[in-house]
Amino acid sequence: MTRLSGKVAYVTGSGRGIGRAVALKLAGEGAKVVVNDLDAEPAEAVLAEIRAMGGDGLAVVGSVTEDGFAERFVGAGLDAFGEIDIIVNNAGYTWDSLIAKMTDPQFDAMIDVHLKAPFRILRAAAEPIRIRAAKEAAEGREVFRKVVNISSVAGTGGNVGQANYSSAKSGVIGLTKALSKEWGRFKVNVNCVAFGYIETRLTEATDAKKTIMVEGNEVAIGMPGKVVDMIRGMIPLGRPGTPEEAADGVYLFCAPESNYVSGQVMIVGGGISF
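^ thats the sequence. predicted structure below, dont judge the formating
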């Protein structure tokens, strides 16, 4: 029997990279997955992968920063599957600059996607979770739900050129710890995974200039080869992690074995720590 059979998981930013790996991992363990991406094509592709493995899910396309997205995201999953068991706040990207050159919109963009969006999603989920928890308590049943917020070692230890990203990811840790206390009475485990260097299209080693457009902003992706070599030297296990290994870390906080673990931050970074 799969460990998450009958559960419904909501995973933002799950059309590519780590989010895709998380969605597939949870689906492989039996969960129905509400997939999200900025673009329809990758979201639908992941949904097709889930269905091909015998699972089920739903794609909700759009930016997590849009007004009303949180309610639409949570509402779509509830309408389709009637439950909310797991929330993984994963969506995000980096937009780096030294602070002297960092603009207000650049700083605000990181706060909006990495901190405000998770806050809005969790707020939208609050009443549905409260109603279900009250019913379960009245019936004498103890049902655990899971929230996994995604941070970074930039949030636990800071990083040059990432005052915006580091601030947002540090804020996610505060959100996690506050909500673990607020939602404990509802039997919700709220934890945080802080990633080290995980290889994705955003972090690949490249000396060529590569950019993507995110909500009208041109954002650089990839990292210079010499920077990647330096980071590799800091990782005790000697290499970056894969998206699948990152997803395994998230899964640990979604599994029943974590039912008495809450308010914790786990670094998934091959032994790197700050």
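The mean pLDDT is 94.
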